[in-house]
Amino acid sequence: MTDISELTLEEKASLTSGADFWTTKSVERLGIPAIMLTDGPHGLRKQAGDSDHLGLAASVPATCFPPAVGLGSSWDADLAERVGVALGVESAIEDVAVILGPGVNIKRSPLCGRNFEYFSEDPVVSGTMAAALVRGIQSQGVGASLKHFAANNQETDRLRVSSDVDPRPLREIYLRAFQRVVRDASPWTIMCSYNRVNGVYASEDPWLLTSVLRDEWGFDGLVMSDWGAVNDRVAGVAAGLDLEMPSSGGRTDAQLVAAVRDGSLDERALDAVTQRVVDLVSKVGDRGAQSGPLDVEAHHALAREVAGRCLVLLKNDSELLPLAREARIAVIGEFARTPRYQGAGSSQINPTRVDTSWDAIRTEASIEPVFAAGFTLDDSGNTDALREEAVAAAADAEVAVVFLGVPAEEESEGFDRQHMDLPADQLRLVTEIVAANSRTIVVLSNGGAVTLPFADSVPAILEGWLLGQAGGTATADVLFGAVNPSGKLTETIPLRLEDAPSFGNFPGEHGHVRYGEGLLVGYRGYDSADRAVAFPFGHGMSYTSFEYGDASASERADGDIVVSVSVTNAGPVAGREVVQVYTSLPESSVQRPPRELKGFAVVLAEAGETVNAEIVLRRDELAYWDTRVDRWIVEGGSYRVDVGASSRDIRTTTQIDLDGDDVAIPLSLSSSFDEVLAHPVAGPLLTDSLEAQPGGIEPEMLKMLGNFPVGRLDGFPLPRRDLEAIIDKVHQPHGD
Length: 736
Ligand code: BGC
What we know:
Elements: H1 9-15, E1 37-38, H2 68-73, H3 77-93, E2 98-99, H4 123-138, E3 143-149, E4 162-164, H5 167-174, H6 176-185, E5 189-192, E6 196-197, E7 200-201, H7 206-216, E8 222-225, H8 233-239, H9 251-261, H10 267-285, H11 296-308, E9 312-316, E10 329-332, H12 357-364, E11 370-372, H13 383-396, E12 399-405, H14 424-436, E13 440-445, E14 460-463, H15 471-479, E15 493-494, E16 512-514, H16 523-528, E17 533-535, E18 546-548, E19 552-555, E20 561-569, E21 575-584, E22 596-605, E23 610-617, E24 624-626, E25 631-633, E26 637-646, E27 649-658, H17 673-678, H18 682-691, H19 699-705, H20 720-731
Parallel strand pairs: 1-2, 2-3, 3-5, 4-6, 4-16, 5-8, 10-11, 10-12, 12-13, 13-14
Antiparallel strand pairs: 6-7, 9-14, 15-17, 18-20, 19-20, 20-23, 21-22, 21-26, 24-25, 26-27
Helix pairs in contact: 1-9, 1-10, 3-4, 3-11, 4-6, 11-15, 12-15, 13-14, 18-20
The structure holds beta-D-glucopyranose.
Beta-D-glucopyranose binds at residues 39, 53, 100, 147, 226-227, 346.
């Protein structure tokens, strides 16, 4: 263990910034080695040779697992943990110390260019999946880097924009997933984001990096900057930023040295961040040697299994799916042979191999299918001729499987999408195909949600998101029923962009984006406005059907709530169901969305089997952030517990009565009558005094006075000195 007092000031400054794009600096004199940090998060992107960070330089081949948009749709933490283990193994073989992911930013708008790298519009799904991934990675002695901390929900102006978020949504939506991962998985590192949060750069925000992250949540790992996120390194170190990445060429190291020398930076702050870098380096050293080579086949097989669990069957009229192997199939759409399986930017993996749906369907089908491209991915070629050929192929076939998607150049890190529609030529194609053959199945490839104007006329739709390198075979597994689909949406698919709760407040202007929808993000917003959607959050079908028994809920000694429900597989094949538990508090004193996800479980049931699902809802998860006292409060009351197959398919409801946390709201003469009446000590005193008044006080009058500050009234309904006496009593230490 290095004693940092042996380091010179210059060495400390130098250790806390990168040597180049991907490595830290060493101090040979004290035996401190350099370590390597690389992207992530759905595969290893270790660049060979000269490095850049936007994916231009080639990286070593690695398994490309489904990006978070796909993996999230499995809702399966165990599966995510297995992916994490595989990522850890690949990193260790390549001698990578920290893999830069996962990302748990909330999908606030369907337009965010990086939504494919994030799990959900909901913090419980995001936090649960990311914690599992982190556990898996770190089980191999490789660090994870939870990113991008915080409120980085768009790409537009991402290096400067201020995300202006009120305290409740900031805590309850945007920070909550980070908090869960820190608590459940202790990531070795966290990456702060580029943007500002309420005006302050994340990379230099002492509230974010120290008060919240370390003092409140107990994080004891290292905070690194996103690549180029440092605005003022000296302010960053004072705020708790441990490592600047990538290298600043020594420029900011010199600033630190100068700041310590001129007294503007306390050397103890530099010592603290240096210590964390040294601690990280020694954690990596403990890993021991890992042996290669990579088992490419085994990891590809895992990528296939995982991808099969990520597809979401949006609809399946007349049980058009699964396909019979003997069917005469027309495979249409360029994506079937040129798949889109990952997003672009810093997470782009150089896959060990890539499966296509076209090859996989040909392998599985007993009759040779026909293929028609239908459109091109680069606007070349004769679109009309391609469409006509595809429509003719569909008309001749028993069933048409049409692969549609968002062109790669529309979705990437670095910019947001301008709209959420599929290209016009693809929409025209599918309209003509379904007119020619009503037995049409659409398979989608897209990193962010798209509008589905054909949803009513096309009988079967499989949302494939981005499925990683084995997505092609996994898609065929689901199409032919070798895998029974069990993915569920982790984001709402709206009917129109204009319906999205963030619409009008995204992406902001002139350096600010106002999170004007507050708590009403994603399904919380669609539900509170009672707005129709194309497919709701949590939705996803199966080739079997599930029946739910009556749910029950009980409180455990530790305060957490256990929800139990039986689930029966009432159909012909084994299948998995994601049982979702939502709560609400109808009598709440604060704003609450109609329903919020608080827990979920994946159950596997054979045909005809009944299994019992037990879902633990953490008491903490029921808390809201109370801005009067700046802390989490669980309100007492009768909570409604909805259990179902999606946010809009609630199968059984129960309730649970909970005692609330004590909240001592400080009272003053500016407190309202209602606030004083609600106070556990002052309330009864005020009631007694009011009742003692000659003639008492009418309830209507009390209602009218409810929001008057008590200090504004003198003589009616009470003399001011009586009110002052009540307030004073509350302030006495033992208040008798
Ligand atoms: C991205 C990070 C990534 C880093 C290194 C940044 O541009 O925002 O997610 O880990 O580059 O490539």
